[in-house]
Structure prediction request, 176 residues.
Amino acid sequence: DQIIPAHWLKKVTRDGFADGLFEAWRKEPDFVLNQPERQGATVLIAGPDFGTGSSREHAVWALQNCGFKAVISARFADIFRGNSLKNGLLTVVLDQQVVDALWQLTESDPTAEITVDLQDRQVRAEGVTADFELDENARWRLLNGLDDISITLRNEDEIAQYESRRPSFKPRTLVV
Prediction:
């Protein structure tokens, strides 16, 4: 896997994966993310079928650990996209022509600003304005910084009440 090699997949915490992101490619001095002017980028313009072979959350976590908040591509692998949206990384699907225009813009000016507006579901850059689709639930989760666990924890009091009424012979959820 090019996003993060398998030997990085031994941890289940969400941090400590930055050095593994594109590990093989980063050994090449001219790799795009090794260029000083690319440091601090938060939007990754990617090729088609981005995330293929990256079925674990670690790929998403590695991108986030490096500061990426959004990835733009013409197509994403389904599992990768699902993991991204559930873990707070916005994946934006745009027509290949728009992705190519953004790619050319960043090649000619590595400091070009690309705005990914989640509220309005729109990508904006010099000479480019493109709407993108995103289902309302994913948009709501991202805007509110919620993942599956935090959504469940919104009902923590009700869960505790339910657990307190369960018969003692049934399995229990222990407080951590």
